[in-house]
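Sample intake sheet
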Amino acid sequence: MATVRNLKIKTSTCKRILKELHSYEKEVEREAAKTADMKEKGADPCDLKQQENVLAESRMMVPDCHKRLEASLADLKATLAELEEANEKEGPEFEDARSTIIEVEKLFQTTEA
């Protein structure tokens, strides 16, 4: 049985993963710039290889966050639907959950386009 507490937890989870995703995207940009700068300056090949590994690891985290966010979004939607079926539809938790769902879906639409 879904509860308002579960809804709050699932909403927070979605928000946390979304924040993580944005953080990794910024990290990829930062590391890519650093790698390009090192290539431009003719850095030591070992240092350059290490930097490329760091960049590759950061890039791997973006799809992982997307998968976790999709799963978390599905979980949040299911919990919200279950509570709405039980005629619980009002309160700040519900508005927060709905706005989070809209925000995440908007992100997925811009990513797919």
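Comment: The two ends are 37 Å apart (CA to CA). The helical segments are 4-40, 45-85, 92-112.
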